[in-house]
Amino acid sequence: MVVGVGIDIVEVSRIAKAMENPRFSRKVLTEREEAYCDSPARVAGRWAAKEAIIKAIGFPLRLNQIQVVNNPLGQPIVTITDPNFDGKRLKIFVSITHERTHAAAVAVIERSVLQVPM
Q1: Single pTM value for the model
Q2: Distance from the Cα of residue 68 to its chain's centroid
Q3: Which has the least CB within 10 A, 11, 80, 81, 117?
C-alpha cells in the first residue's frame, strides 16, 4: 500500500554554488555518496532525491540521515538511519533524473500490509 509520494526539482547551478563551501557536502551527503558524486549534477540528483523522500515520509530528517546509492544496475537504493523510520515495514522507491540545468527526483513510500491467515 502506497502511503507517501514526494517530488523535487533543483537547479544544478544552485548546488554547484553551494558546493563551493566545503561544509556543504558533509551536511548533505554520506561518505559513500561523496565517493560517487563527482559532479554538481550528481549531487543535485541526490539533493532532489532526499527532498522528495522527506516529503514522502512526512516527518523531518536531516539530509545526511538519508543515503541514496546505486545498485549494480544503476537503480537508486535508499537507506534511512533515523531510528524513527520503520525500515522493516516501509520501503522507499526513488527515481532520479538530471540534465544540463536541472535535477529532479520522485519518491514513493510503500507500507507492507500484514497478511492475516484465514
Answers
A1: 0.91
A2: 5
A3: 117
